[in-house]
Amino acid sequence: MKNNLIAEIISVGTEILLGDTINTNAAFLGKELASLGIFVCYTSVVGDNNVRLESAMKIAMSRADIIITTGGLGPTFDDLTKETIAKLLDLGMKIDKHSLNRIKDFFVRINREFTENNLKQALMPTGAIPLDNEFGTAPGLIINTSDGKIITMLPGPPREMQPMFNNKVIPFLLNKYSNSKKLFSKVINIFGIGESKVESMFANLMRTSVNPTIAPYAKLGELELRTTALAYNETKANEIINPIIEEITAKLKDKVYGIDAGSMQQEVVKILKDKELRLSTAESCTGGYLSKRITDVDGASKVYLGGVVAYSNEVKMQLLGVSEDILSKFGAVSEQVAKEMAKGVAIKLNADIGVSTTGIAGQTTDFTNKPTGLVYIGYYDRKSNLNYAIELHLARGYKDDRESIRYIASSNALFEIIKNIKGTL
Amino acid sequence: MKNNLIAEIISVGTEILLGDTINTNAAFLGKELASLGIFVCYTSVVGDNNVRLESAMKIAMSRADIIITTGGLGPTFDDLTKETIAKLLDLGMKIDKHSLNRIKDFFVRINREFTENNLKQALMPTGAIPLDNEFGTAPGLIINTSDGKIITMLPGPPREMQPMFNNKVIPFLLNKYSNSKKLFSKVINIFGIGESKVESMFANLMRTSVNPTIAPYAKLGELELRTTALAYNETKANEIINPIIEEITAKLKDKVYGIDAGSMQQEVVKILKDKELRLSTAESCTGGYLSKRITDVDGASKVYLGGVVAYSNEVKMQLLGVSEDILSKFGAVSEQVAKEMAKGVAIKLNADIGVSTTGIAGQTTDFTNKPTGLVYIGYYDRKSNLNYAIELHLARGYKDDRESIRYIASSNALFEIIKNIKGTL
Asked: Which end of chain B is more exposed for a tag (fewer CB within 10 A), N or C?
């Protein structure tokens, strides 16, 4: 792509402003345009209102090279994207016969009457390039304006818009602006260290890097650092990105749990598959959150046998073989019980690895005055007979502590699996 | 509310422009503002860039009474919403001691180092009203501008932004603009019937009702109808709302699983407590999602004993006593296995109720050519010896099918519990 091409996205539809439809179109287009090396500086949403659309178009044309609209191409009176933009550009409108025939064919195929309001969908501003809609009736279109800008109008439904953009608009843009660099990204997945701490470690690098750029993105208990390079191809991009990834990884050591891992549970399933190990879980405070996350991964059944949600002491004893002595001596939320749960489930289910959680997630306690947020993660490795538990303090004093304590507890359990299997314990 | 108040939403964040984050904040705020009678004519997204944010702010201030920003309040150098808007309004910035203390307390609580860049989060433009963040560190703020506009800056993460808007901004707006009447809402919780069907049943009521208003809100597999009355107090509001709720409930019958229930799992825990019944779960395809949702509810341990995640056939046999004969004859995804799982877990755990899931959520099958989306929910009631399973077909052919199949399967399991206990089977 030519350097510094700027695109702007305008999504048209009152249902988006009202929040009835979430604007996934802007996200899709933003991602696709970034991968082409086209920068999106603004996106906006306007209702089905010609005055406001015209105002938004004027602003967009003052600051972007490429303007992409979605929505407002249908047959009804409140579909007015083409009409408004044609008027703004001082272009007439006429029926595009090719598009009209396609729409008529469609009505024959589905055995429905072609009503007159459908003529409107074949109307095109003079000089526009129609884009066939493979998944609906409303064609899209591209206008090359007299001052060198490109205006692309796409239908609103994602299943019509996405293939039209990929199959029609991208080839058009590549042809128009060939010879171009593209954006390539890799994500460094980090656990167990805060965003502000990481930023202070790499402040200079993050602030001064231009190619690649390095951007932090904090998730609950985790941090992603996205490194993005502008390059002609992936090999060149890797030459730019990989040294930075190595530099950051060398400093953060085992806090880095993966590169482009997707999620901790994906990394866990992946490395268990690699090592042909079978996992089992025993959950108290996380109550199924850990197993839910593992089984979020398609194909988890290859490495995950199952588990026990031992929410009551009876279940801990009966299904996991935790001894009544230990339960009464140390309480359910204890290092000893966590260890027994992890070992118990692995042996009961004949698994290579057992991992457990027990803790205080909410107001309900084990009646020993232990504080909210106290969590033990137990680990058992059958082959080495390794059996230990770590102690965590996860209360943050927020109202959603229950959710975050349970989530971060399950993340810690996943992290223990990754650390142990990768041998960086 | 004063007539014709216009709001504009500006979401700040390069990750939104890049499509890495879908802008659900604008949808949430659009919906909430609409329910307050405040019109949103435009929303826009800008990256973490002070020049572009200033430009978007100028445009918004030229056409809206209320401007709400989300994002850019964090500790890092690319968080610059407050700084940019303060400069635009010619306001100085100073540390808000109350906010600073809250942030410092947070770092003490989580036992992490308070790094200097966190000071930035306590900086406020002169005259701003700080909004405590109950779910994170970055406070929000409200500025009353000299020309009578309101600028509200909220954090980007939805779990911080949504409660701050509901608990801090809505009361502020109601106090500022209302003549003493307030909005009161009740939500009708509906399961097992589609939005368009409900809309067609109550189209006239929904379209013509002014006080109360009736607004549908579709969630995955569920529908909420929010009835909102403008009234001087709750008693008056109930006089307006209750007849409508009765009318709708009479028509939808047992599809209504609660009023202001919060969630299906909250309703389940509540009615189990009322009836002093103890629940157990046996999950295959949901893999812990069901038990996770039940234990999301604080106090679930009073009624939920625990469960088994029986992801492999071995676990189904060993921990739940499902017979090898039945597994090999009908396959793991079958009515018979669902029934045995539900009964097996209830007996093993000495529970009053057992509920089970088995199905095909993704590409992994039980090797019997059963289709993705086929799910059985098993139910067992110890007292009456009731033991049955229902068959569901949950595939929609979308890319997120695995998540939605697992979620809706767990919803159906919760719904069976509610139906049976409420005796409306």
From this structure: C
